[in-house]
Write a structure and sequence with these properties.
9 strands; 4% helix; 4-stranded antiparallel beta sheet; mainly beta
Length: 108
C-alpha cells in the first residue's frame, strides 16, 4: 500500500477526503475515515512524513478561456421589420399575428 502525505500550507476552504487510512501510534491498527482530519480528531494517529507530498495551490481551479457573454439585442428589437410567430421575417405583413419591435401585433 502506498503512503500519502498531504501538505496544504495556507490553503483556505474545506477539504473533503474519503476513505483515508491512518495508522494508530504504537500498534498496527488502521483507521479508514471519512470527514474531519483536524488535529483534535486524529490525536493518537500518525502520519508518515517520509511519503510523497502533494499540495493544492490557490490558483489550482482558476478558470481559463471563459469570458462573460456579450449581449446583443434581438433583431426584432433593432429593426422595424415584422416577424411571424415562427421568427420568419415578413416584408409585407398581411392579416395575422406578427412580432414588431419586440411586441405582438394583430393585423386584421
Amino acid at each position: 500500500m502506498d503512503t500519502f502525505q498531504f501538505v496544504f500550507g495556507g490553503y483556505t476552504g474545506n477539504l473533503d477526503i474519503d476513505d483515508l487510512v491512518l495508522v494508530k501510534d504504537g500498534i498496527t491498527e488502521n483507521l479508514i475515515d471519512n470527514g474531519d482530519f483536524s488535529k483534535n480528531h486524529i490525536q493518537g494517529w500518525s502520519a508518515n512524513w517520509q511519503g510523497p507530498s502533494y499540495y493544492l495551490a490557490n490558483d489550482a481551479y482558476q478558470s481559463t478561456g471563459i469570458t462573460l457573454p456579450s449581449v446583443v439585442a434581438q433583431p426584432s428589437q433593432q429593426d422595424d421589420a415584422y416577424y411571424t410567430l415562427q421568427g420568419v421575417r415578413v416584408s409585407h405583413p398581411t392579416s395575422g399575428i406578427f412580432i414588431h419591435k419586440g411586441k405582438k401585433i394583430v393585423m386584421k
